[in-house]
Amino acid sequence: MITSTTSQQSKATTQTAHSKIPSIIAAVICLIFALWSTLWFWSAVLTVRPETVITQWEEKQEEIKPELAQKMIARLKQSIAINPIDANSHLLMAKYYQWLANNSSSAKTNNINISKNQYTALAEQAFKNAIKHQPSGYYAWAKLAQFYSNQQPLNQAKLKPALSNAMLLGPFEQRSRLILIPLLFKHWSLIANNTEDMAQATKIIKLALKTSNSLLTLNSAKTYQKLAEITPLLTKQWHKNFAKKHIKETANDQ
Asked: Where do the TM regions start and end (predicted)?
């Protein structure tokens, strides 16, 4: 009788211990999730100031100095260390490196002189990292295409896929179109050599002409002397008048 009672008590203890395992596992999972959420939140917080500064600079509301750019890069590095797959952090990093490449011949970081070419390489890699973690990111592709377009000498082998992907992924996105429209006309000959790229470019131009981007489109075509090429796409009378006027002026100048 005693043996039976002891056996039942042991069995009950084992069942109780087993019943606690799911609760322990659930508690550990909740703890891990809470920790991950905290780190993710802090990573996002670290990007707020860098994004605000670079946005205000892009909108010509705030000047950036090399010292400020370096501080923002330091914050972004902390954010990336916490959350290395956040595409936006890498994209912001690329913008700051690009700014440093364009606005300072050299600067000291940790007592090491960094040249314009080194900043350019860092910017390119950061753009690629942003795309790696978000391959469908149309804006990152557009910024990369713009980045390559501004490099001298021009590397068409790098520019073409970036421009093609930007046109394919972001024809309806305003932020992307503002970058793409001037690039379409600047690199018209490169695009015209590819049927699919030309079809996408035509789609973007048609859409832009129906929106507030119409003047940007016409002025970009004028700048790169491509008004004649887009005349068949013009439907509004003032668009046609604009093209006719400037095509005539160009012919008279020649």
From this structure: 21-42
Residue 86 and residue 133 in contact, taking contact as beta carbons nearer than 8 Å: yes
More confident call, 127 vs 40:
127
Instruction: Work out the average pLDDT over 7-11.
Output: 53
Q: Is the pLDDT of residue 210 over 90?
A: yes
- The 3-class secondary structure across the chain, one letter per residue, is CHHHHHHHHHHHHHHHHHHHHHHHHHHHHHHHHHHHHHHHHHHHHHHHHHHHHHHHHHCCCCCCCHHHHHHHHHHHHHHHHHCCCCHHHHHHHHHHHHHHHHHCCEEEECCEEEEHHHHHHHHHHHHHHHHHHCCCCHHHHHHHHHHHHCCCCCCHHHHHHHHHHHHHHCCCCHHHHHHHHHHHHHCHHHHHCCHHHHHHHHHHHHHHHCCCCHHHHHHHHHHCCCHHHHHHHCCCHHHHHHHHHHHHHHHHHC
* Residue 187 CB contacts under 8 Å (≥ 6 apart), including other chains: 149, 159, 163
Q: What tokens appear for 113 in the block?
A: 């002189």
CA neighbor of 98 nearest in space, from 131, 60, 126: 126
Q: Record the pTM.
A: 0.80
Cα–Cα distance, 154 to 149 (Å, whole number): 7
pLDDT value of position 91? 96
Interacting residues of 63 by C-beta distance below 8 A, sequence separation 6+: 57
Q: Which amino acid is at 179?
A: I
Instruction: Specify whether the backbone of 194 is left (phi greater than 0), alpha (psi in -120 to 50) or beta.
Output: beta
pLDDT on residue 13: 52
